[in-house]
Structures are given as C-alpha cells and as structure tokens.
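dumping the sequnces here before i forget
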Amino acid sequence: MTAMRVERAPTSSLLARPESGSWRSLDIQLAFYALALAIIGLLMAWTNSTEGGPLAAGSTFTRGLMWFAVAIVAFTVSAAFDYRWLRTFSWLLYLVNIGLLLLTMAIGIEINGAQRWISVAGLTFQFSEISKVLMIAVLATFLAHRADRIKSLSTIVGAGLLTAPPFALIMIQPDLGTALVLVAIMVGALFLAGASLRWMLLLAAAALATLPVIWSLLLPYQQLRVLSFLDPTSDPTGAGFQVAQAQIAVGSGGIFGKGLTAGAASGLLPVQSTDFAFAVLLEELGFIGGLVVFLLFIGLIWRVLVIGWRSESVFGVAFAGGTAAMIVFQMLVNAGMVAGIMPVTGIPLPFITHGGASLVSTAIALGLLQSINIRRARAPSTS
Amino acid sequence: MNDYVLGQPEPPRTKLGARFAVFGLVIVLVVGLLTTRLFYIQVVSGGYYAGLAQDALSTTEPMTAARGLIYDRAGRPVAINVPSYVVRVRPGDLPFTDRDTVVSRLSQLLNMSSSDIIQALDRNANQRYEYVNIATDVPEDVARLIDEESRDLPGVDVETQEAREYEYGPLLSHVLGYTGAVTADDLADPDLQPEGYLNNDQIGKTGVEATFETDLRGTYGSEQVERDVNGRITRTVSIDQQPVAGDSLELTIDTQIQREAQEALDWATGIVDLTRGVVIVMNPQDGEILAMVSNPSYDDNLFAQGISTDEYQALINDPNRPLVNYAISDQFPPGSTYKLVTGSGALMDGVITPDTLVQTAPYISIGPYKYWDWNKRGFGPLNVTQGFADSSDTFFYQMAGDLGADRLAYWAQQFGFGQKTGIDLPGEVRGIIPTNDWKQSVFGQDVFPGEVYQAGIGQGYDAATPLQVLNAYAALANGGTLYVPQIVRRVLAPDGSVVQDFQPQVLQQVGVSQDVLETMRLAAREVVTTRHTFNLVDEPLVVAGKTGTAEFGTRDAEGRLPFHTWFVAFVPNFTATQSGDPAKTDSQLAIVAFAYNSNTKGNAATEIVKYFLQEHYHLGVDLTRPDLLQQDNFYSN
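..and the predicted 3d for all of it:
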C-alpha cells in the first residue's frame, strides 16, 4: 500500500484538475472513439441509402446526418450540464420516462406488429431508447443515495423495483430486446457500485428458474425467433432466413470486405432492416472493418470505466457501469445476431445501426459521463 | 463514499478495483468471443460463404417461349397471344398471419371469390417459393392499384405475361380448345417432365391446343439471374439457352365456312329450340375438315383469362354440356343414314342386284313382334335405289336379315363405323357396331334377328358420331377412300417456313366395288329428286344425300319416341356451265347436320344443310321451310 502511495502521487498530480470544472478536463479519448464510431455509422448510412442516392431528402444518410447533429448537441449540452442536478431531478426523470412509455402505448405507431414508435413531425422516434439513459441516471442516483447500505439486499430489491415498471412497459410494446438492455444496465450499475454479489447471484439464479414462465409469456413471434435461432432451417424465410442470409453476407465479406456500397448492392440483406447494418459493414469492410469497430468500442468502454473509476463516487461508478453494460450488452446481442450466435431481437448496435433515438440516447449518456469527469475535481478542491 | 476524498482509507476501493477488473474481463471476453466468431466466418470460412453468396444471388431461371399462333386455312389468325397483367403470389412470402387480409383485399380488387384465391394459393402447397398465378388478364387499373398497395400485400406481385386470345370465341372453341393453368397432375406426368413445365405455366387443355401442345409450346430457355433479398431480379448474368418460340398451326378450317355452318345451325336452333346440334363440312377428296360446329358452345376466352369457379360450375352443370364436342365425343343412333351400309353390303354379298325388286310391307313380323315401316303402309315392290330414296325400313330389314349381324357389321366397319376416325382432336369416341361376339361379351347372347333388323336401319345398338357418318358418305362420294379427317393442314415455324405439311392420310379403302358405290351415290341423289327431302331438289345445285331419323329415349303417352334428325350430303363438282354429276367421284364438299332431340314436323337437319348450301354457294334463292321446323311428331325418314 505504501509503495503504491509513493507511485500514486505523480499520477494523481497528472490527473489533477484545475479548481473549477473546465472543458480542458473533457475526456478527449472518449469523445474521439465516440466520434469515430458515429462517423463509421454515417458511412454505413451513406452506403445503405438506396433509392434516390444518399443525398436525396429523407434518405438514410440525410436522416443520419441530421441525427448526428442532434447527437452532437445532446452530447455538448449533457457535458455542460452539472450532473449533480440529476439527483434533484431523478424522480422527475423517472416519471417522465414512465410517461413517455405510456404515451408510446397510447399513440404509438405499430410497425410489424410492435408498437414502439412515436411519430413527431414525420420522424419516428423510439422513446424506449431514451428510457435506457434515463434509467442509467435514475439507478445511479438511487445507488448513490444508498451508498452506506450498498451491500444490503434492499439495495438490489430497490433497483429491481425501479427497473420493473419501464421493463414491463417495454415488454408490452413488445420489445424483449430493449427490455433486456434495461436489465443489463441494472446489473452493470449494481455490480460496479458494489452491491452484494451473493444476493445478486442468488436472485439471478431465481430469475433463471422463472425462465419457463417468461417463455410462456413471450408472444408467438418472439418464441418463433428464439426457436428459429436454435434451428435456422425451421423457418427459412422468416427470422431464420435473415440469420442465414446475414451469415452468408458477413462470411462473403472475407478479410478485407467487398468495398463500400458493394454490400448494399449485393442485395443479400434488406438494407431497410437497420438491425443488420453491422452485417452490411462486415460484408463491405470485412473482418478488418469489424475489428476496427470492436477496438473503437473497447477504447470507448475503457474510457467510460476510467471516468467511473476516477469519479470516486458511487454515482459516477454506477453511471459508468450502467453505460458500459448497455453498450456491451447491445454489442453482444447485435453483433452476435449478425455473426449467427445470438437470436434476432432487434437491438441496435450503438452508433452503427441507423436510428436517431439510439444515437441521441448514447450521446446523452456519454455527455453526462463527461460532465462527471469535468466536475470530478471540484470535490477534492473543497476539502 | 460519494464524497470520498483522496488520501482517506481505501479498503472499499480495492474491492471496487476487483470489480472493475472482473467487469473489464467480461467485456474482453464478449468482444473476444465476437471476434473469434467473425474470424471463423470471415477468414476461415470466407471462401465457403463467398460461394454461397454467389449461389444465393444467382439462380437459373427458365425463359418462357412465346406460344405458337393458330391460323385458319385462309391465314386468318384465330388464336393469338396478347400481353396481359397477371397477379401472382409467392406463398412463401405471404406470412400466414397476413393471409386473410391479403386474400380478402385481393378478392375485392380482382372481383374473385376468396375461396378461388385460397385454392390457387394452395395449388402447389409443397413448393411455397414458386409463384402461382391468381388472376390473369387483369385490367390495367386494377394491376396498378395492386402495385401501389404492394406494401400491404406481401408476396403479391403483378407481371406482364402473354395470354391467349381467341379471336372468334365460341365459334371455334370446340376445334381450338383452350389453354389453362397446369395442374399438379400435369406436373407429375412423366411424359411432360422433360418439357419443364413451370408451376404457373399454361398448357393446352383440349382441342388442337391440347393435341398440338408440343408444337405450340416451343422450347423454353434458361438464364442466370441475380436477385435481391426480396426476390426481385436485379441483373441478368448470362443466357444459357435462348428460348425458341412455338410453331404455329394452320387449320383446315375455313372460318368463313365455319361461320356459315354456325349460322345455319343457329337459324334452326332459333326456330325449334334445338338443345344440341352438329354441322361438319369436309372436303371428301382429302378428308380436310372445313367447318366443325357443335352446339351449345362456350367462349374459350373464359378459360384463357382464368375461368372463375362459378363460371366453370355453370358450364359443368349445364345439362347440354357445352364443353362436349358432339361432333366426335358423343355417339348417337345413326338412323337411316346407316342404310348406306346395309344397301352396299346387300349388293356386295349378292343378297340383291341393283335391279332386284323387293316387296315392302307395312311391317314384318318375327314371332309376336312387328317391325313397322316408317310410313306404316309399305311402298310395294322396290329396287335398292327406290328403297334408299324412300328410306323403306321393311326393305332394309330384309337386307339386314339376309346379311346377318356379322356381315352387316363387316360392311359397317368398311365404312369406318365402330372405330375412331383418328382426327387430331382429343376425346373422340368409337361408336358401337353390334356383332355376335360383341353381344356375347356384353350380354352373353347372340344378336336376335329383330335386333339385326334394327341394326340394318341404324337403330338398336348402332351408335356413331356425326363425324363417322360424314366420313362414310365422304368415302362414298370420293369413290371409296376413307380418309383420316384432318383438322390441321400445316405446322409453321415462327419465321413462316413449313415444318410439317400434313398430306391426306388414308384410313382404309372401303371394300365396296365402284359399281356398287356408284349405285349408292345415284340412290342418294334419288333421295333428293324424289322429294323425300322436300324442295331441296329445287335448289340450283346438284346435291345427293341421305336423311335419318333416329329414335331414342322413352316413349310418350301416345307411344311415340323422341328423335334426332340427320342429313348427310355431298355436292358433286360443278362449273358455271356444267352441273354436278352424282355418278362421278369428284365431289368437293360433304356435309352432315345432326339435330339432337329435334322432334320436328320435317327433317330439321335437311333444313340446316339447305340453309348452309344456299349461303355457301350464294345460290340466290331462299327455299328454306321454317314450317318444317315446327315441333311435331311427323317422321320424315
């Protein structure tokens, strides 16, 4: 310990922040990785814009560009925003979250049998995506409040009770994938914040035991998707067909890929199906392209965790844990689906999948992390 | 802890460090797993998937060949191809959950019953990724609507295909037949396998469309195409084999003569309400059919456009069976027209000579049974010419009795009765000629003498098609050559060159001497000149022929039977200066008319032939006798 302390001094001085929170303490690496991923996402939107070309009004690319701008603004505003206000607002945020999901139920547009989208001024928006970042903030606030009782069972139960209503509302839409992202966020935040491992494992075991019950609650098409994942030949035109086609598309990309736009032109995948944007990327940019994306994600998550670590607060740690868990879980499920090792669930891959809400939601989460990072140094300065 | 300050005791933090480490490890594992998987798919198996991608994209597609056209003998197109909008469904692309809404919307747009659509969808239930045609010949506005609504109609698409159009509709239906969608049975037929029929293909169902299917269909080609994920063809890679358009047919039918025959039959039908009738016109010198009309008819365009179940049921349930070609597909007692057989046989076997006088009577008895002459009085002593002209039943009872069942049958076979003529149309029946063997095999006993009498006048067991009756008289007219009646003259390649030129085909030579045939021709002329056919003799045209009245069915309250009427005739060749001579074998035209269940005061068939001849030869007179077409029970043999 003492040895560490010796070494620690220069490190902390290196990391020391000036008196007031400053834009100079913005985590440049995090911003860079996020920007790089977002630009790759735009590139994919460019190659996937089919009818009328990428510059046509309303094309995937122009819409992506617009959401990109919105995300930059959301990121900047979130970073500028003093995250500590979130504690004051957290209950309000939670109610807004529930309200938006209820609104989706009431006036949402039904596409392919699921009511997930709200149409505003001609743009469809998925509030369940925003629900993710709101839940990260709400859970982080909750865990910060319970810092002294973090090990008790009631902490886990409380987090579960907070997560349950939005989880249920999203399940009803029905959107199993996004609902599971909320669970991942909760587990990530609890784990990193230091909740009791024993109780978490026990409750996880109990949850696994209820799987058959959940199975019976799944809608036939969801059951079909799981089944078709287990045996892709069982439904060669439906979900299984997409999985098989995605495998062919990805596999035929090889090491270096077929080149930009070659994947969209090959017609192996329906480009409208944004969930498979990563498959198109792998087809066009190959294994190398996929590797670059993975490395950028690793870098991004690394920075998220570093910010959490450095925040030295339960709020910061939990927020980082939730955000990292969200990104990793979505990577696992989306990229896993594209690679044929996960069922088709319709979860977007952050940045890469064309979807405004997902991008803005991720931008807000990363912006708030920046806010945590910027304002981290203030606390020590008061002591 | 949230106000944790550097420098304070750190135990919780080291524990937290462990959690960060575990968390980081999980992330590395997840990304490692994904990377390994991608490495396996993209790098290790990349080549395999690249091959699959090529296969998934490029498929071999058949290229349909344009169906051959059909012309009449004057070169008038009678069956052509027209572009038509076809609404198709690939059942595999139609989710089961959307099926009801899609079917009901299509039924609304296409004005079809839902059950018809479902039936079409399930036609090839085991091949869900092959298109099935739901409706052909869809109006353009409906096709556009369906195209616009394609978002809400998964699996449905609109395509332009060539559809058959029959220029004359019902006039030529029985000859041309029609094309229709192939059935599962057709597809399973081993004979058709090499032809490569597609699930949504058309095939000739009946008529020459069916008998000349192989010529008309052509040879399908194949091409390599690339498709996108929605199954739309994006690019043609290569054409492996160009399709070859089908050959065209030139019929022996002359549409003009066909129309005259149809008009004559319809004229009589309009007066006496004939339920069924046939007129066939033939060139006796080569067996070419110039006209073949069978009433009632149907519009073959209904089938070409995809007939609805209701329309089809209506045709099937019509008691007069419009789909049956009565010229060849049903057999009737030939009545007195059969006396040609009995007379020729009696002369050939020496039962009589042309000059032998035979006593006729009101009736002839066998035991308790009386066999009446048709006029119930008899005609006194007659030679064969007079017997034929008066159509004396008692004369021919005696001839048949002397010949016996088997000799009578022998001469019938000489004239082509009891066997198919071999015309290139589907569904021909052979007719019945009673022999002792035949009756033994069917009833276990010989033909009774009374039945031999009946057989001698074309009644009893005798059954023949109108075409057989015509063919027998054509052989009489041409001096004894029985031809295979021909319906198609030539097969023509798409460029117009002749692929096949059908020469007259001799079925057999009638084993009757020229003398006897001449006697019978003159006797047939006597039928007309003795006014047995009323005023037919007054026409400015030499015609010879034979009437027939064939009883059938069950007797009415007054003991009378309903009857069909026949008239079969030939027109000896003539010029502007030279009228025809029935003694010669140079007739250019033979005709038969058959009026089913006519029950007319006079011979309805004779009136029909008279009407036709006036029209066809522009005789410039109107000697038709509508009064003879009034319903009555007057026997006019």
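Chain B touches chain A through 51 residues (CB under 8 Å).
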